[in-house]
Design brief:
Helix content is 32%, strand content 19%. By secondary structure, the chain is α/β, with parallel strands linked by helices. It folds into 2 domains: 10-279, Metallo-beta-lactamase, Chain A; 293-357, no CATH class. Strand 2 (33-39) and strand 3 form a beta hairpin. The chain is globular and about 65 Å long. The two termini are 21 Å apart.
Length: 372
C-alpha cells in the first residue's frame, strides 16, 4: 500500500535524503523533459511528479496533480521558468484516475485548451465515483470491509472521511476525459513518440507511457522507487487486483530496460531493477500471508493483524485508520492470489465474512472469482 514500503536501502534510510525529490523546483531530464513535483499537503506521499514534455508550440504533461491552489500555483511557476504558461498546455496524459493525478487537469481544462487523455479501463471507476458523489453508493473500499471482517473499521472510515471533507475547498470535479486511451495507443508528440501500455493493478485502468527511442518509462504509480503501490484502492473494487498487478509488473520485464520516471519518488536508472524488487517483495508478503492463514480459518482483518507493517514493523492496530484500510485491503488481495494458486481455500460465512485456511488433502476445486 502507499504507506507501506519494502525494505529501504541504507541510502534511503535518511528521511531528508529520502524526501529530497519532493522539494519545490524543476529537474531537467534532458531532451526537453522536466520533472515538476507538485505538493500534496498533509499526505504521507509529500508530492506527485508531473512530467513536462516541451516543444516549440506548447507543452504536454504526464499527470497533472491535485486540484488545490498550492499545486496550481507551483505548476504555473514551474512552467513560467521554462518559458510557458498554463495556456500552452496541449495535453494532459493521465496515468490513472486517483485525484492526485487527475483532478487538476479537470479543473484547468475548464478554462484552457489542454485535452485530457485517460486509460479506457478507468471508465468503470469514473462511473463509480459519480455514483458515490450522487449518494447512490459508498466507495468500494468501504463496501469491501465487512466481507474482510472489518465492519467496525468501515464506520471509522466513514467518520474520518466526513470530518476531512468538510471545509471551504471546492468539490473536486470528475468530468470525463476528452479521449479514452486504448492499450497500445501511440502518442506522437513531435519531439518523441510514446506508447500507452495498460498496467492494471493499482487501479483497473492504470497506464504507463513508454518511450522506446529515448529509453524511459513514465510509470505513474505502477512502479515506485521507495514504496509499494497500493493495490486495488479505487472506487470500483476487484478481487483480482493483485493478480493483475503482478502480471503488469512482469510485462515491464518484457520491455527493454529504461529509465524509471515515477509519480512519487526520484528518477531512477533502471525500471527492471525496481520491478524485480517489487516482485520479490510481494512473494515475501504472500508467504507471510499464507503463514498468517496457516492456523486458519482467518479473515483478511485477522491475517493483517498477524503481519508486520511499514519499515518499522508496526502492528495493524498502531496504524492510522486509512492505513489500516489499505493494509486490510492488501492482505485480502494477497489471500485471494493464494486461493488462485491453490495454496489456500476460501469460505464465506452466513454473515458474509470471507475466511481463508490451508486446503485439506481432499479439498474442493479452486474458487474462480468473477471477472469484475
Amino acid at each position: 500500500m502507499d504507506h507501506v514500503t519494502s525494505r529501504a536501502s541504507a541510502s534511503q534510510a535518511d528521511p531528508a535524503a529520502r524526501n529530497a525529490w519532493a522539494e519545490p523546483g524543476i529537474e531537467s531530464l534532458g531532451g526537453g523533459v522536466y520533472r515538476i513535483p507538485l505538493p500534496l499537503p498533509g499526505d504521507a506521499l509529500k508530492a506527485v511528479n508531473v512530467y513536462a514534455i516541451t516543444g516549440e508550440d506548447g507543452v504536454d504533461l504526464i499527470d497533472a496533480g491535485m486540484a488545490i491552489a498550492q499545486a496550481r500555483e507551483r505548476l504555473t511557476e514551474a512552467l513560467g521558468q521554462l518559458g510557458y504558461g498554463l495556456g500552452d498546455i496541449r495535453n494532459f496524459f493521465i496515468t490513472h484516475i486517483h485525484q492526485d493525478h487527475y483532478t487538476l487537469a479537470a479543473e484547468l481544462r475548464t478554462t484552457l485548451r489542454g485535452l485530457i487523455t485517460l486509460g479506457e479501463g478507468e471508465r468503470i471507476n469514473m462511473r463509480a465515483i459519480r455514483d458515490v458523489a450522487a449518494g447512490r453508493n459508498e466507495p468500494g473500499f468501504i463496501e469491501m470491509l465487512p466481507a474482510m471482517g472489518a465492519a467496525g473499521l468501515a464506520d471509522q472510515i466513514r467518520q474520518f472521511m466526513a470530518s476531512h471533507w468538510v471545509g471551504p475547498q471546492p468539490r473536486l470535479q470528475w468530468s470525463d476525459p476528452d479521449h479514452w486511451l486504448a492499450d497500445g495507443a501511440i502518442l506522437d508528440l513531435r519531439s518523441r513518440t510514446l506508447r500507452a501500455i495498460h498496467t492494471p493493478g493499482h487501479t483497473r485502468g492504470h497506464v504507463v507511457f513508454h518511450d522506446e527511442a529515448n529509453p524511459a518509462l513514465f510509470a505513474g504509480d505502477h512502479v515506485l522507487p521507495h514504496i509499494t503501490p497500493s493495490i486495488g484502492f479505487q472506487p470500483s473494487i476487484t478481487r483480482l487486483a493483485l493478480r493483475d498487478y503482478l502480471d503488469s509488473l512482469r510485462l515491464m520485464l518484457t520491455l527493454p530496460d529504461s529509465r524509471l520516471l515515477p509519480a512519487h519518488g526520484p528518477v531512477c536508472d533502471s525500471t527492471h531493477d525496481r520491478v524485480n524488487e517489487l516482485l520479490a517483495h510481494h512473494e515475501t508478503r504472500l508467504e507471510q500471508t499464507r503463514e498468517a492463514a496457516s492456523a486458519g480459518p482467518v479473515s483478511a482483518c485477522q491475517a493483517a493483524e498477524a503481519i508486520p507493517w511499514t519499515r518499522r514493523q508496526r502492528k495493524l492496530a498502531d496504524l492510522d485508520v486509512m492505513s489500516q484500510l489499505l493494509a486490510i485491503g492488501e492482505t485480502a488481495a494477497h489471500l485471494d492470489v493464494l486461493v488462485l494458486r491453490g495454496e489456500l481455500v476460501s469460505h464465506t460465512s452466513a454473515e458474509g465474512v470471507d475466511t481463508y485456511t490451508l486446503p485439506s488433502a481432499d479439498a474442493a476445486p479452486l474458487i474462480a472469482y468473477p471477472q469484475h
